[in-house]
Design goal:
Elements: H1 9-19, E1 23-31, H2 37-48, E2 54-60, E3 63-71, H3 75-83, E4 94-95, E5 107-111, E6 132-134, H4 136-143, E7 148-152, H5 156-159, E8 162-164, H6 175-185, E9 194-198, H7 203-214, E10 220-223, H8 226-237, E11 243-247, E12 256-257, E13 261-262, E14 276-278, E15 287-289, H9 292-297, H10 304-309, H11 314-320, E16 354-355, E17 367-377, E18 382-387, E19 391-393, E20 397-402, E21 406-411, E22 415-417, E23 420-422, E24 424-426, E25 430-434, E26 444-448
């Protein structure tokens, strides 16, 4: 009985590309009483692994918190399985704003003491006695009420790149830190103000809403489904997005763009930027914001010290990071004195510093379908195609198109035909060439007609 991953992230990424299947990234949570979290965890792994589910899931006696991806053609089978679990029957699944087949590369289901660490030790606290849920339209209306206090229950690195205008954004690393800080800030408004809260998908502000009701606050509301569901409703109903910037996400994407507003700065030079990255020095791995220019100049490191480290021999680098728990470094949030333009908490202005670059308009080109993608060799950076129609010559311009690859246009400078270098390929030939991007089985190969 397999209850763990057997493939590395790299091997899984290659399998995803070879499959040619579009994947959906989604999340959900539920507060419920689970008597045996370990048994529940194992049952989920056995049910989800055959469905090619990948992601990060936490299970505790208080419920489940799941962020995952799966092939689109397994979605309804996955949903059917959730419906067999009484407290998950009919649960809303928040689908990611932006699509990425590689959002998760392993299935990790962990048993935790709590699905959201809150630091509370109060037997009388009832997490199910939650605040009133508001949809996007009602949330927007309440934001305009002068008697409303809106609170962001995410961490400083999340709110820095995007938030609701006028929100309290506590300068915290964890959710548990935010509860006493916010309670102290708004202690005088238990009855005369609307307490409006939000987070990424709803799980943190749901617990926060129950906490503040427990503390005697009368008018407690939360954004139903968090920023993810808010964004979907805004688009569907044609509403104004009161959220500006990016929504930070806990997978390799590190963010989904909600509006074109850039509200953050490169931590190294101060240029408007909202792209998070991790320091290339594995002994540091600090999560910070870095623009393209600084990334090139600093070779993706956060400081001069880290830049020096990555040029040391590998054995010396290993010695420096010996004893460091890598698993805790994925989203290391520590602030560094070397990051001169880092801002958080009350320092956030809520003012757009720049607009994100617009996507280039699609240009109309004449093309003919000549083949399809067959394989990609990631280490060599080589793509293989099967030519199904017409012929292909060196010097031809081609378009490689697919749901994950997008539209990539290049010139054929050199190619191998059936394993040998050649200038011409015809129907039935297998063609390989160096590519600066990854291709998938679902990709189509077009020849551009001048």
């Amino acid at each position: 009985m397999q209850l763990f991953n057997t493939l590395s992230a790299e091997e899984r990424a290659e399998l995803i590309d070879q499959s040619g299947k579009q994947r959906l990234t989604l999340s959900f949570y539920a507060y419920a009483h689970i008597e045996d979290p370990k048994q529940f965890r194992d049952s989920l792994f056995l049910a989800w692994n055959p469905l090619e589910v990948l992601g990060r899931i936490y299970v505790a006696t208080e419920g489940i918190n799941a962020q995952l991806s799966l092939p689109a053609d397994h979605f309804y089978e996955f949903k059917d399985h959730l419906d067999t679990i009484p407290f998950l029957n009919g649960i809303r699944l928040n689908v990611a704003v932006e699509h990425d087949d590689h959002s998760f590369l392993k299935l990790t289901i962990k048993v935790r003491n709590k699905i959201v660490a809150d630091g509370l030790n109060d037997a009388t606290f009832d997490v199910t006695n939650k605040g009133i849920h508001l949809g996007a339209k009602d949330f927007n209306q309440m934001l305009e009420d002068p008697n409303t206090i809106v609170v962001d229950f995410r961490n400083h690195y999340e709110s820095e790149v995007g938030h609701f205008k006028g929100a309290l954004t506590p300068d915290v690393d964890t959710f548990r830190e935010s509860l006493p800080i916010i309670e102290q800030q708004i202690a005088d408004h238990k009855e005369d103000k609307n307490l409006l809260m939000y987070c990424t998908g709803g799980i943190r502000c749901e617990k926060a809403s129950a906490f503040f009701k427990h503390k005697g606050f009368k008018n407690v509301y939360q954004l139903d489904g968090g920023i993810i569901e808010y964004t979907r409703q805004v688009k569907e109903e044609g509403l104004e997005s009161k959220f500006i910037g990016k929504n930070f996400v806990f997978d390799h994407r590190l963010g989904e763009r909600i509006t074109d507003d850039i509200v953050a700065q490169c931590h190294q030079c101060g240029k408007p930027c909202d792209n998070h990255t991790n320091c290339a020095n594995e002994a540091c791995h600090l999560l910070f914001i870095q623009c393209d220019e600084c990334a090139e100049a600093m070779q993706n490191t956060c400081s001069v010290e880290c830049l020096e480290v990555i040029h040391l021999p590998e054995e010396e680098q290993k010695a420096l990071r010996r004893g460091i728990m890598k698993g805790n470094m994925i989203f290391k949030k520590g602030k560094s004195d070397s990051l001169k333009f880092k801002k958080s908490g009350e320092e956030l202005s809520g003012i757009a510093l720049a607009a994100a670059p617009k996507a280039k308009a699609k240009k109309s080109i004449k093309k003919i379908l000549i083949g399809k993608g067959e394989h990609y060799y990631p280490k060599a950076g080589i793509g293989q195609f099967l030519l199904e129609n017409h012929e292909l010559k060196t010097g031809d311009r081609i378009l490689i198109s697919g749901p994950s690859t997008g539209n990539e246009e290049i010139m054929v400078e050199q190619m191998f035909v059936n394993g040998k270098i050649a200038d011409t390929a015809t129907k039935g030939d297998k063609v390989t060439m160096n590519l600066p991007f990854r291709i998938r089985l679902s990709d189509k190969l077009f020849k551009i007609i001048e």
